[in-house]
Amino acid sequence: MAINLQKGQRINLEKEGGAKLERFCVGCNWGAIKTSGGFLGLGTKTVEVDLDLSCVMFDAAGTRCDHLYSPLYRVEFLARYGLPPGKLDSLDGALHHTGDDRSGDTGGDDGLDNEIITVNLPKVSANVTQIFFFLNNCGREDFSQIPYASIRMFEGTPDRVDKVFAAYNVAAEAAYKDKTALVMGELYKHNGAWKFNAIGDAYPHPNLGETIKIISQQYIRK
User: Fold this and answer.
1) Contact 200, 182 (CB under 8 A)
2) Averaged pLDDT for residues 143-161
3) Could you tell me the strand order of the sheet in which 23-30 lies?
4) Separation of CA 147 from chain center
5) Which range marks the domain in which residue 106 is found?
6) How far apart are alpha carbons 210 and 52 in whole angstroms?
7) Distance in angstroms (rounded) separating the CA atoms of residues 171 and 17
8) Domain tally for the chain?
9) Which residue stretches of the chain are H helix?
10) pLDDT digits over 191-212, tens only?
């Protein structure tokens, strides 16, 4: 049975039977916004939601050593934050991003994740000790308006969910008003073993650069 994570909960990556979860997908699923529209407010209008799932990696000294985020981010924008160009594969080949989804589920939840990062923990470079997963909203909406958003870890492929290991849901609620960035969780190495921490902290950050800066300032273990 999948673990339903709560904010701040930490879990071992151990499956039923004692085997370690080593190869899996970290996926994010979200819905487009339905609003009233048309003549006299009749009918509905679908507002596409462009969220970006990204991750950054740090070593034991707290130095950022790798990243996955959209190659579509402008190089001049990233340079203002001292960030390199975006890419979809980690340097060690252990993580891969499936690419941008700019709309969310426009026809209701289809059961698949909109953006996914595949993870192969045995291939992660030995110097990497923390991997943070986060979301940025590239549109004008905030998280209180999005009907649903969730992160989950599952075995399978980006197109096929074999077994969900853990899920963390972020429901639309007033607490997320004006919040456009979400530090969702982290994989971290403790005594040689990987664990997961469901962070779930939302911020009014306008962009990816600000989110990475706050991760560097507030969440690094040393």
Assistant:
1) yes
2) 89
3) 3-4, 160-171, 148-157, 23-30, 115-120, 95-97
4) 17
5) 3-218
6) 14
7) 32
8) 1
9) 75-79, 208-218
10) 999 999 999 899 998 799 999 9
